[in-house]
């Protein structure tokens, strides 16, 4: 380009690519872990309902991030990348548990509604909200958890494996079901 804007854009692009190449992948991974490690763990814990599995998925996610950055992977929107990889890891972990654990009536939720744990007298609104969240279907919990982390509809679609056009409708239905469970 021979315009003033063209020369300016080349300068900005050159500075962006040189600054992103100068960042050490290990330092970048540690920074992202400090920034997003806790929210990512909470997300995985909410989806998997097991602290050990959530820790494993978060660890695997950051190992994959380090590998991704070392091989010159895309550095745009790494928060979305982290939650997408974690959501896929949670899905894989859930499939693995269903596939390899012996059948147990307590864990078989394919044919029965989720178990409602009665609230103790004097339960707080937070207790009611948590109980209502646990009673939701797995996809509803996943969508609400991703939205609570501040992800956009596009990022939620990528992380959950559903069409972007469907995210708003499914999220609104999940929120409606959660609200109904809260007042029930």
Write a structural description.
The protein has 184 residues and is an all-alpha fold. Helix content is 73%, strand content 0%. The protein contains eight helices and no strands. The protein has helices spanning 4-22, 25-48, 51-70, 78-100, 125-134, 138-148, 153-160, 164-183. α7 packs across α8.
Write a compact overview of the structure shown.
The chain is mostly helical and 184 residues long.
Largest sheet report: none
The tally of beta strands, per DSSP, is 0
What are the segments in which pLDDT stays under 50 over at least 5 consecutive residues? Answer: 1-19
Give the overall form.
globular
Gyration radius, to the nearest Å?
Answer: 20 Å
Helix-strand sequence: HHHHHHHH
Helix content: over 70%
Task: Tell me the span between the first and last alpha carbons.
Answer: 64 Å
Number of helices: 8
Q: Helix/strand/pairing class, anyone?
A: mainly alpha
Mean pLDDT: 80
Beta-strand portion reads under 5%
Salient structural properties:
184 residues, 73% helix, 0% strand, disordered N terminus, globular, mainly alpha, single chain
Topology readout:
Elements: H1 4-22, H2 25-48, H3 51-70, H4 78-100, H5 125-134, H6 138-148, H7 153-160, H8 164-183
Helix pairs in contact: 2-3, 2-4, 3-4, 4-7, 5-8, 6-7, 6-8, 7-8
């Amino acid at each position: 380009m021979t315009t003033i804007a063209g020369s300016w854009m080349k300068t900005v692009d050159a500075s962006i690519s040189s600054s992103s190449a100068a960042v050490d992948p290990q330092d970048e991974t540690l920074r992202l872990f400090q920034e997003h490690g806790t929210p990512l763990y909470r997300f995985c814990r909410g989806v998997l309902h097991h602290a050990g599995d959530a820790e494993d998925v978060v660890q695997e996610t950051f190992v994959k991030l380090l590998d991704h950055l070392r091989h010159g992977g895309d550095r745009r929107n790494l928060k979305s990348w982290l939650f997408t990889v974690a959501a896929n890891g949670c899905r894989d972990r859930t499939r693995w548990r269903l596939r390899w654990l012996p059948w147990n009536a307590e864990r078989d939720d394919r044919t029965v509604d989720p178990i409602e744990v009665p609230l103790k007298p004097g339960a707080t609104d937070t207790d009611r909200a948590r109980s209502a969240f646990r009673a939701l279907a797995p996809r509803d919990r996943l969508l609400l958890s991703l939205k609570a982390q501040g992800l956009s509809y596009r990022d939620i679609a990528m992380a959950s494996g559903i069409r972007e056009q469907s995210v708003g409708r499914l999220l609104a239905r999940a929120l409606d079901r959660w609200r109904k469970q809260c007042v029930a």
